[in-house]
Amino acid sequence: MVLVIRISFLSLLLAGVAANSVAQSKKLAPITAVVECTQASAKGQIRQFVFDGNKETYFATEKNASAKDNFTLTFEKPVKVKTLEVLTGKPKGEDALKEANLEISEDGKTFQTVGKFQEGQATRKLDGKTVLAIRIQPTEDLKYPLTIREIVVDSEPAVRHFKYPVEFTIDVSDAPEMKEWTEKVARICERQYTMINEELKSEGFKPARSIRLTMKNDYDGVAYASGSRIVGSVKFFKSHPEDMGAFVHETVHVVQQYRTRGNPGWLVEGIADYIRFFKYEPGKAGRLNAERARYNGSYRTTAAFLNYLSEKYDPLIVQKLNKMLREGEYKEEAFQVLTKKTVQELDEEWRASLKK
Question: Do you know which InterPro entries this protein is assigned to (predicted)?
């Protein structure tokens, strides 16, 4: 009887530890954020610099700030903030903020002042207060740009820094009525930029920090990317406003930056759709016809093929293929080097798996 009791107690203890570990894991999972300002950024001084973990970079507005301007950092969901610190001004102290309030909000709509800036800095203990957004609000017109060096948040869960800072600017001069929708798309792409770059990282590569998103009336396609510019069709997205993932696909093309010619289009597009349908919005790729599907079918079809290889052979295979494409070293034999099987053999194996 004693043995049974001890075993039962041990089982309960282990179960409790496991449950607590799972809860702790979920509890500690970092979340993302977006940054917005009522005024445009000065050239090269993008908004995400305020939350990149680097106190040597800084955001600055294009013009002198007024009492009507503000800067807001909004979290993906509310967090419990222990301490909050905001550093303003350039690294050497110029344009440090004095006439401004530090504000927080639980719902992203109603803000309350929790402190004022002194010598360009504001620090507050919030003791676990629920916060969805942090706002920096000048209290009078300034004779210098609004310049913010870093926002430091100690919270539960943690908020993920912008490891790859980027700023999307939009041009909706062809369709002003699409401004709110396009801004939402831009924030989605900014939020996914770290994920995209982590999936496609290679040594020495530095992604674009400024991307322009333009909506055009005279473009009859869906969307395309050229350099650090993305163009979307007004006509298409007015009819398909839910298809925001198309711009994540185009953002992947901006990150790919394949400078050499000769890269197979099916693989270039397949990688972009792999990131979209298996990392950004998994489960939305749809089913494939095993009889018609081919590894070089491009877009969703190739994306599904790459996902199969990622799950069965190498979770980093897309990253490795991307590096080869980026450096102009890709050849069809790459698949055999990475998996010990030819791409044709992998194709047959993958299509057979689709029938199960």
Answer: FA58C, Galactose-bd-like_sf, Uncharacterised_BSP
Output the CATH code of domain 167-354: 1.10.390.10
- Which residues neighbour 284 within 8 Å (Cβ) at sequence distance 6 or greater? 245, 277
Q: Domain-by-domain residue ranges, the chain?
A: 33-156, 167-354
Residue 144 and residue 89 in contact, taking contact as beta carbons nearer than 8 Å: no
Q: What are the pLDDT digits (tens) for 166-189? A: 999 999 999 999 999 999 999 999
Q: CATH number of the domain at 33-156, please?
A: 2.60.120.260
Answer yes or no: are the C-beta atoms of 263 and 330 closer than 8 Å: yes
Q: Above 70 in pLDDT, residue 2? A: no
Half-sphere exposure in the Cβ direction for 288 (13 Å, CA):
25
* pTM more than 0.70: yes
Query: CA 54, 59, 65, 67 torsion: positive or negative?
Result: negative
Q: Which residues contact 167 (CB under 8 A, 6 or more apart)?
A: 41, 46, 47, 48, 190, 209, 210, 211
Per DSSP, which regions of the chain are E strands? 33-37, 59-64, 71-88, 100-105, 112-116, 121-138, 145-156, 167-171, 210-216, 223-226, 229-233
In angstroms, the first-to-last Cα distance of the chain is: 49
Q: In the chain, what percentage of residues exceed pLDDT 70?
A: 92
- Give the number of other Cβ atoms within 10 Å of residue 351's Cβ: 19
Question: In whole numbers, what is the pLDDT of the chain averaged over residues?
Answer: 93
Average of per-residue pLDDT across 128-149? 97
